[in-house]
Amino acid sequence: MKKTFYIVDDHEMLREGTKGWFVSHSDWSCVGDAANHEAAYSDFERMAKKDSLPFILICDLNFFGENTGFDFMKKIHDLYPAVKIIVYSMFFAGGMVQNAIKNGASGYVSKNASCDDLLKCMEKSFSGEDFIQEELQPNLIKYSKLTDALTRREREVMELILQRHSNDEIANILNIKKRAVENYISLIYEKTGVNDRAELVVRYGG
Q1: Are 70 and 103 in contact (CB under 8 A)?
Q2: pTM for the complete prediction?
Q3: How far apart are the C-alpha atoms of 154 and 162, rounded to whole Å?
Q4: 133-173 confidence digits (pLDDT tens)
Q5: Secondary structure percentages of the chain, helix, strand, coil, to 5
Q6: What's the rounded Cα separation, in Å, for the pair 122 and 58?
Q7: What is the spatial distance between Cα 22 and Cα 5, in angstroms, rounded to a whole number?
Q8: Element (H, E) at 30
Q9: Disulfide check for 30: which of 19, 22, 86, 125 has CB 3.0–4.6 Å away?
Q10: 41: left (phi over 0), alpha (psi -120 to 50) or beta
Q11: Is 7 helix (H, G, I), strand (E, B) or coil?
Q12: What is the DSSP letter of 191?
């Protein structure tokens, strides 16, 4: 089993810097990179045909186009379940970490962390273990306790809000009426103690 990774991030300098650091400081090798999801899908399709998929996919949680980072992760996880997914992102709130795990991530590291933390995450994944950066774990525990107070549907709506979906999109995804979405959101505000959508996203999805 080879220690290979592929990185998706829209910042070219970060991609190049990450690849260069791992080449110089570890036995991991980079088999490709992309600035957007479409290019990554194409590369993965090509690599799958050659049986040369990377062991790990490192990806950011950018929000652009019709696909969020979560949509991208879920699709890769569904199509190529053997590929381990590590989120490497500036988003570090508990809601984002939990959403990432739910959509297929086996690791999560903040971009504020050191390269050694990211390497540790990769090594854990290679050994078959999940890894959440230690500094992010309290936020995840706090968010999990919060969502325990929500109903299943309220949790679904909140997760989609944190993924930056509009009320119309949430209604379509959950196959419910927009008015029902609005009612669920009001209940979420009441139970979480926030006043509006912006505050909810900043507190739990930033």
Answers
A1: yes
A2: 0.84
A3: 12
A4: 999 999 889 888 888 889 999 999 999 998 888 999 999 99
A5: 55, 15, 30
A6: 9
A7: 10
A8: strand 29-34
A9: 19
A10: alpha
A11: strand
A12: H
